[in-house]
Amino acid sequence: MLVLNLCQRILFPMNPIYLTADRLFDGTGAATVLRPVVKIADGKIDSVAASLLPPATCAGDRLDFPGCTILPGLIDTHVHLLLTALDTNEAIIDETVKATDEELLKRGQSNARAALRSGLTTVRDCGGRGNIVQQLREQIRLGKVEGPDVIACGGPITTRTGHCHWLGLIADTHDQVRQAAERMLAEDADFLKVMATGGNMTASSDPMKAQYDPEALALIADIGRKAGKHAAAHVLSRSALPGVVAARYRTIEHCDWRVEEFRYEFDENLARRIIDQEQYVGLTLSGLARRAFLPQVSQWNIGPVKRLDMRFACERRMLDFGVRYTLHSDAGVRMTPIDRFDIGLRAAERELHLTPSEILTAVTRTPAEALGLADRGTLQAGKRADLIVVEGDPLRDLACLANVKAVMKGGAWVRA
Ligand SMILES: [Zn+2]
After folding, report:
1. Which of 109, 235, 247, 259 could form a disulfide linkage to 221, CB 3.0–4.6 angstroms apart?
2. pTM above 0.90?
3. To which H or E segment does residue 408 belong?
4. Distant-in-sequence, close-in-space partners of 42: CB < 8 Å, separation ≥ 6
């Protein structure tokens, strides 16, 4: 295994690197490039060309990947690096509450390493404790810890008994909401996150109820905007959706249209506003949604499993309507290890009837657009050299994503 860290590469700039493979998916929506030659220099993509012959002269290193496909590094817009992905919510919460800050940081480091090696070159962490994820982000940035680029919010804003209150950024009144948003900025958050409804994971919260009124939701998004940061809202029922849309949150996490225990109500007017305001919804392919690959799940006689068909039908309708979307794992929640995004993406293919190309776009180009990361997401000249090499053709079979042969982040090999 060849491991070069970013610092070494910056200190000792290398010759251009040439990569060849059987095919390349560049993320732009163009057709697959056959027999690609990718030239990488100074941490960036210098060129992508198709060639019947290997590059004739290479004043640099050349690596051939026969039988493989080159793709942009994957971007997961919603993970929890500090959580353990155990089988039950209770066990995950217990492990998190009991852990010291040092233990949580260590857990984050090991999840970050696993994430990068599985092909994720950028992750957005949607909720940790205090500023531990920000510390991890800095360690990775300095090359002290191996991991993807991390976009962090720290502790999400929630109510006293609300969703993820055990992560601890509590705000009930408007004043407290304002203070919480300002504290996130003071703790160097990259974006602001609010739990706009309760969640399945926290028994004392109610996913059907909005945790904040529209005014509180607007306060948070506006404070973020003034600081040049985007905001994300967790929405597990229709109750909070009008407020989240009105406040123009950049990303709507889960974007659930449920109005009753077993009733979803898609609203075209609301969806039209989401499109017009260039908001993005993040669809969640975590544990239960992976039922096709986790046989035990289909046996569970619980609401979130019994509703899955309705949920996916509603999401499909939203996609057909034209809402911009990313696919995320929510890794760290139950049965959702951070290095198995491939299973979530195969679940998306099966449940949402998306094509592999649509799925790969929703975890490369679209998330880069949603998060304002203009330097990545596609394999084009001038973009940062974040790429992965997988064995086989993921455009025919997404299961290939489990066979990652190599990962490059910012022009440096992580694994080859
Ligand atoms: Zn989450």
Report:
1. 247
2. yes
3. strand 404-409
4. 13, 411
Q: Measured in angstroms, how far is the CA atom of residue 324 from the centroid of ligand 1?
A: 19
Q: How far is the CA of 37 from the centre of ligand 1 (A)?
A: 38
Asked if 32 and 49 touch (Cβ cutoff 8 Å), the reply is: no
Average pLDDT, the chain: 93
330 C-alpha to center of ligand 1: Å? Answer: 5
Ligand 1 center to 185 CA (angstroms): 20
pLDDT in tens, 54-86: 655 556 688 999 999 999 999 999 999 999 999
Query: Which residue spans of the chain are classified as CATH 3.20.20.140?
Result: 74-370
Q: Where exactly does CATH 2.30.40.10 map onto the chain?
A: 6-72+376-415
Q: Ligand 1: distance of its center to the CA of 80 in Å? A: 6
Q: Into which CATH architecture does domain 6-72+376-415 fall?
A: Roll (2.30)
CA of 161 to the centre of ligand 1 (A): 17
Phi-psi region of 348 (alpha: psi -120 to 50; beta: other; left: phi over 0): alpha
Please tell me the CATH code under which domain 74-370 is placed: 3.20.20.140
Percent of the chain with pLDDT over 90: 86
